[in-house]
C-alpha cells in the first residue's frame, strides 16, 4: 500500500486540500467573465462596496452569497472594506440538494447536479471574523482555536461585494485558500471547481479566471502580507453585549422554514 501524500488531505468540512509551494504566478483577471454568476434574492439597486453610505459598528449586515444569507454584526465599514462578526449558533439561510442528501455526502461527479432548495442551518464551531476588502474578489475569515489562539486565515474566493441597504452581496467561487499561522498555504476544493465545469454550472473560461484569482490572492494578500492579514484583526474580540442577529423575513427564508426538517 502506498504512503499517503503529505501534501494532500481532506479538511474537516470534507474539502480536498493541496499544499502549495513556490511563488504565485499572477496574471490580469477578467472579472467580467464571472459577472453572469452574480445572483441575488432582491433587486437592489446595487452599488459597489466602499462608496457608502456605511453601516455603523454593531449594526446588522446581511452577508449574502447569492441567495444564501448570514446575519452578522458590523465591526468596521468604510472605504477600505467591510469587517463583520459571525457569531456561533447564528441561524443561516443556505441551499441544499433537493433530494435531501447532504452535498458532501454525494460523489464528486454528482455534487453539482440537480436542483437546490432553500434550507436553514446554524453556524457551528465558534464565531469568526470576516473581512471583505473593497474591489477584491475574496474575503478573509479569521478562525480561532478553542483557547483563543489563531487557527488560521481562510481566504474565500468570491466576487467583489456590492451593497444595498443592510445587505452585502457576492458569489462564492468554489476555490479557496487556507493559510496556517506557520505560513503553510493550502489550496482547497480544486477538484470541486473541475466538477462544477463538468456539471455545466461554470464555463471553462470562468473556472480559469477563478484559478487566476487564487494566484492573485496568493501574490498580493499572502506573499505581500496585504491588509487584512495583520495583527489588528488577529487580536480583535467581539463586545460581550452583542447579541446574535436573526435572519431577515424574506420569501426565501419563509420557504426554508416551511421545508427544512427539524
**Which CATH top level class fits?**
Mainly Beta
Give a count of the beta strands, DSSP E runs of length 2 or more: 15
Count of helical stretches = 4
Uncertain runs? none
On the 0 to 100 scale, the average pLDDT is: 93
Helix-strand blueprint:
Layout: E1 8-10, E2 16-20, E3 47-48, E4 60-65, E5 68-78, E6 81-86, E7 91-97, E8 116-122, E9 128-133, E10 138-144, E11 150-158, E12 162-164, E13 167-170, E14 172-179, E15 185-188, H1 190-198, H2 204-223, H3 231-234, H4 251-259
Keywords: Hydrolase
GO molecular function: hydrolase activity
Biased composition (Basic and acidic residues): 1-10
Concise synopsis of the structure shown:
With 262 residues, the protein is of the alpha+beta class. It is built from four helices and 15 strands.
How would you characterize this protein structure?
By secondary structure, this protein is of the alpha+beta class. The chain has a single domain (30-40, 53-234), classed as FomD barrel-like fold (Beta Barrel). Helices cover 16% and strands 34% of the residues. It has helices spanning 190-198, 204-223, 231-234, 251-259; strands at 8-10, 16-20, 47-48, 60-65, 68-78, 81-86, 91-97, 116-122, 128-133, 138-144, 150-158, 162-164, 167-170, 172-179, 185-188. It has a 13-stranded mixed sheet with strand order 1-2-15-14-11-10-9-6-5-4-13-12-3.
Protein traits:
two-stranded antiparallel sheet, 262 residues, globular, DUF402 domain-containing protein, hydrolase activity, FomD barrel-like fold, single chain, FomD-like_sf, alpha+beta, 15 strands, Ntdp-like, DUF402, 16% helix
